[in-house]
Amino acid sequence: MKKPNEQKGSVSRRKFIETTAMAATALTVSPLTFQLKGSENNPDQVPMNKKPDSKFGGVQIGTITYSFRDLPSGADKVLQYCVGAGISSIELMGDVAESYAGLPPSPTEMPEKLTAEQQARLDGMLKSSNMTLEDFRKKLEPPVWRMVVAGVVGTTDEQRNWRLTTPMIKFQELRKMYNDAGVEIHIVKLSPASWSDGEIDYAFNVAKALGAKGTTDESSLNTAKRLAPFAEKHGLYAIMHNHFQFADPKYNVDEILAVSRSVMLNFDCGHYFGSTGLNPADFIRSHHDRIFSLHIKDKTGPKTNPPNTNQVWGQGEAPLSDILLLLKQHVNDRDWPKYPDIELEYPVAAWSNSVREVRTCAAYARQILI
After folding, report:
1. What integer is the mean pLDDT of 78-106?
2. CATH code: domain of residue 241
3. pLDDT for 152-168, tens place per residue?
4. How many domains does one find in the chain?
5. Domain annotation covers residue 55
6. Strand partners, 34
7. Is residue 364 in some structural domain?
8. What pTM was computed for the model?
């Protein structure tokens, strides 16, 4: 039996490697104008003096901020990484946008003693990721670990007051900076379900100021019920992101979607495939009108050794061609998802960096779509 990535219309890793240099030239990048370090002693030149265009065969390939977690953070730097990778659309993490706008910083270390509420948040994170706290400490990059700490600790009084009083001008400025460089912000990931009403209003105002169509949070019935009224009020979407929930027989995505038409999915195809072994393309067909965006990655399936493990694109079993060609088939249909985003999760080699790898993933997607 052929692996999913060896199916008809797919791109074998060998064929892709032979043609990737040619494909990369089509990412509308030109002479080099700034540097990124592939490793401390190995600077990597990255192009950035021309607007990127990662729409291939009508399908808008994007990425998410998390893909660049091995590199220095900051809104201006993330923009450089997008342009350097030839990417013209992004799901922007809330910490990048809020830090740019002046949010007081969160704690960077986990408290020695957690409150009951904080412990419940941590337990929820560990359950959804199928990892232990020690796994979190060992496996997560420092910026991601800081996000975990912030998620567990929750909003400080200083941050809450800032969110309730800050104007939107800095977020509007951020949107203009990205748009002028040729990068659209289609989602901002603020995860506001545990916030106060005023802060949730703020979250949707931020999304609107950035030009995003909504904000995301972890998928659950309670989260959908909490955010849906605010999404309806602002004319935006409350977008539910999945990790391994689909492998839980108790998880009912249709019940979540029934809360409101303002509730949409940020469907992580990799987590879905890795945890269930099912083809994400089939789920997309059945729920296409409720999916706003997708996370695309290559993985092994749940019965492979090792199971549910991130792989370099083309070396795993995820049916990338099935997913991308299905989107291309329906690119002109209004009620189909328009934003498949590269989520770079496989380990980046010491001689490379995430900008190179995202650029390579985009070239791989292009080979499928064109």
Report:
1. 95
2. 3.20.20.150
3. 777 788 999 999 999 99
4. 1
5. yes
6. 46
7. no
8. 0.83
Tokens of 79: 């923009």
Assigned domain for 135 exists? no
Interaxial angle between packed helices 320-329 and 280-287, expressed in degrees from 0 to 180 and rounded to the nearest 10: 30
User: How many residues can be counted in the chain?
Assistant: 370
Is the separation of the CB atoms in 341 and 293 below 8 Å? Answer: yes
The better pLDDT of the pair 206, 124 is held by: 206
